[in-house]
Design goal:
This protein is an alpha/beta fold and 168 residues long. The protein is 38% helix and 15% strand. The protein has a single domain, classed as HAD superfamily/HAD-like (Rossmann fold, 3-Layer(aba) Sandwich), CATH 3.40.50.1000. It is built from seven helices and eight strands; from the N terminus they run αβββαβαβαβαβαβα. The strands form two sheets. A six-stranded parallel sheet has the order 5-4-1-6-7-8, with helices on both faces. Strands 2-3 form a two-stranded antiparallel ribbon. Helix 5 links the parallel strand 6 and strand 7. Helix 2 packs parallel to helix 7.
Length: 168
C-alpha cells in the first residue's frame, strides 16, 4: 500500500483494537509449576496505547485467552474495552461497532496469527507485527517494522497519533 492510501485509512480511525499474544507480547507463554501464566509487556507499547486513549481513540483488547495478567494490563493502561476468551474474535468486534456506532472502515486491528484473520479481513486498517505469520501479512495494510511485544503496538499508535494530529 502506498503512503498516501495508508494516511487516508489512518485518518479515519476511531477505534484501535489489539490481540495480546504475539502483538502486545512476544508470544511467549510462561507458566509456573502451578500452571499460573505470566506475560511480559513492552512499556513503550503501553505508553502508545495510553496516548491514543487519552486523545480520544477507543482502545480494545480482543484475545482468545482468559488471563488475569491481561485484565491487569488493560486496567493499568486505562483502555476502553476488554474481550477475553474470544474464540471467534469477529463477534467481539461486531459488538464494539454496535456499542460505539462505528463501521469497519473506522477500525484499526493488530493481530499476528490465523485466529485474527476474521477481523483483519474486515477492518479499515489491518495491521500486524513484523513477525506475524505470512497469511496475516498478506492481508495487512500496515506491517510494523517491529516484532510483537517489541514496539509494534507503539509504532501503530504513533502512526495514528501523528497522522491525526492528536494531543493528550
Amino acid at each position: 500500500m502506498n503512503k498516501e492510501d495508508l494516511i487516508k485509512k489512518v485518518s479515519g480511525i476511531k477505534l484501535a483494537a489489539f490481540d495480546i499474544d504475539g502483538v502486545m507480547t512476544d508470544g511467549s507463554l510462561t507458566f509456573d509449576e502451578n500452571g499460573v501464566e505470566y506475560k511480559t509487556f513492552n512499556a513503550k507499547d503501553g505508553q502508545g496505547i495510553v496516548m491514543i486513549t487519552k486523545a480520544g481513540i477507543i482502545t480494545a483488547i480482543i484475545t482468545a485467552r482468559d488471563n488475569g495478567t491481561v485484565k491487569h494490563r488493560f486496567e493499568v493502561l486505562g483502555m476502553t474495552r476488554l474481550f477475553m476468551g474470544q474464540k471467534n474474535k469477529i463477534l467481539a468486534m461486531e459488538q464494539l461497532l454496535k456499542d460505539y456506532n462505528l463501521d469497519f472502515s473506522q477500525v484499526a486491528y493488530m493481530g499476528d496469527d490465523l485466529p485474527d484473520l476474521c477481523v483483519l479481513n474486515k477492518v479499515g486498517l489491518a495491521c500486524c507485527p513484523n513477525d506475524a505469520v505470512d497469511e496475516v501479512k498478506q492481508v495487512c495494510h500496515f506491517i510494523s517494522s517491529k516484532n510483537g511485544g517489541r514496539g509494534a503496538v507503539r509504532e501503530l499508535c504513533d502512526l495514528i497519533f501523528k497522522t491525526q494530529n492528536l494531543t493528550v
